[in-house]
Amino acid sequence: MITRLGTERRRMSKIVIHNGTIYLCGQVAKDSDAGIKEQTRTMLEKVDELLMQAGSDRKHILSATIYIKEMKYFAEMNEVWDAWVIEGASPARACVEASLARPELLVEISVIAAVI
Amino acid sequence: MITRLGTERRRMSKIVIHNGTIYLCGQVAKDSDAGIKEQTRTMLEKVDELLMQAGSDRKHILSATIYIKEMKYFAEMNEVWDAWVIEGASPARACVEASLARPELLVEISVIAAVI
Amino acid sequence: MITRLGTERRRMSKIVIHNGTIYLCGQVAKDSDAGIKEQTRTMLEKVDELLMQAGSDRKHILSATIYIKEMKYFAEMNEVWDAWVIEGASPARACVEASLARPELLVEISVIAAVI
Q1: Which stretches of chain A score pLDDT less than 50?
Q2: How many CB pairs below 8 A link A and C?
Q3: Cα–Cα distance, C115 to C62 (Å, whole number)
Q4: Residues of C in contact with A91 (CB under 8 A)
Q5: Which residues pair with C22 in a beta bridge?
Q6: CB-CB under 8 Å, C94 with B110
Q7: A92-97 and A61-68: which strand pairing?
Q8: Would the CB atoms of C10 and A96 count as touching at under 8 Å?
Q9: A98 → closest Cβ in C15, C98, C108
Q10: Is B91 close to A24, i.e. CB distance below 8 A?
Q11: How many whole angstroms separate alpha carbon A19 and alpha carbon C67?
């Protein structure tokens, strides 16, 4: 059985749940004119909101892929990330450089999490 | 138990099935000299073919990661994508810019789906 | 139930296990000053080590995403990869070009595997 939430847009579902595993659609900042720290902060806020809708939370993230527009933002992104993850419950993570859908976007995250 | 299909090439299996979840190997266009719309169309055709072999279909895709050579192709890729996905059954998706194995390739997709 | 191993660093867990599926954190070379073949070799050595810790091995990899700094390294990376994977038991794979956390890193891999 597959549960899909946030299916208003035809293009993608915001949340897909299958077999106890949650797949979130790629999340970017709420305000794409902000700097890297604020973009990271509001992007992770959206992850929190989606995980809550899916009946999970940031302690149950299994894997995260972070795409960052330029590696010069790496340290500042990590500052916000490190404060956000729960000690002892952080996900497996990969972070690579990639340009995103709009030029002003500095960071995007793809998340796989567990149903609680 | 792991089922692997399309294992002719040592480098990768085209389809790997485990625990009700299907992992497809990255798919590109059938004709890499075509433009973005045609490349997206035949890439998604290959996804359909692999999902059929795996006993699934595009309504059961959980997550898709799209790599696009340049974001200038984003709108045209999405036109083909939006027509291809099933309303209310689209996957979680992320799309980032990345160069691919051969310079003429404009788009590649990585798919996780559910066994029906 | 989620099992996390290698949680010394707050930033990420090296291994996350859930529902029979293992997620490894992105692996890079042991010696980032080496050339592409040596970087690929020691990166895959680290994958072997983590999979062993997780109670699995390279025959049980489901999916791998390879990020390569420049596609000019593609053939040499594949030489090492092709010798490393087990015939008939290779994962689904995607490989795209991306710059990595440090400029000298030439290749990174993200792995999903099955618990044996």
Answers
A1: none
A2: 84
A3: 10
A4: 12-13, 16, 23
A5: C17, C113
A6: yes
A7: parallel
A8: no
A9: C98
A10: no
A11: 28
Residue A15: closest CA among A41, A46, A54:
A54
Nearest to A73 by CA among A49, A99, A38, A37: A37
Which residues does chain A have within 8 Å of residue B74's beta carbon, measured at their own beta carbons?
Answer: 101
The DSSP code for C83 is H
Q: Give me the mean pLDDT over the B100-109 stretch.
A: 98
Choose among A19, A90, A91: nearest Cβ to C19. A19
Do B40 and B81 contact (CB within 8 A), yes or no? Answer: yes
Q: Looking at beta carbons, which residues of chain C come within 8 Å of B10? A: 82, 85, 87, 90
- Residue contact A16–B92, C-beta within 8 A: yes
For residue A110, give both structure tokens.
């793809």
ipTM: 0.97
Give one word for A55, left, alpha or beta, with left for phi > 0 and alpha for psi -120 to 50.
Answer: left
| Long-range pairs, B86-89, Cβ under 8 A, ≥24 | B86/B58, B86/B59, B87/A10, B88/A4, B88/A7, B89/A2, B89/A4, B89/A13, B89/B58, B89/B59, B89/B60
- List the domains of chain A with CATH numbers: 2-114 (3.30.1330.40)
A98 contacts B98? CB cut-off 8 A: yes
Nearest CA in chain C to B15: C92
Asked if B98 contacts A101 with a C-beta cutoff of 8 angstroms, the reply is no
- CA pair distance C50, C30, nearest whole angstrom: 13
- In chain A, which residues have their Cβ closer than 8 Å to the Cβ of C12? 64, 85, 90-93
The 10s digit of each residue's pLDDT in C52-91 is 999 999 999 999 999 999 999 999 999 999 999 999 999 9
* Residue at token pair 């699934």: B56
Q: How far apart are CA C70 and CA C55, in angstroms?
A: 33
In angstroms, the CA C98 to CA A64 distance is: 17
Q: What angle do CA A62, A68, A70 make, to 5 degrees?
A: 155
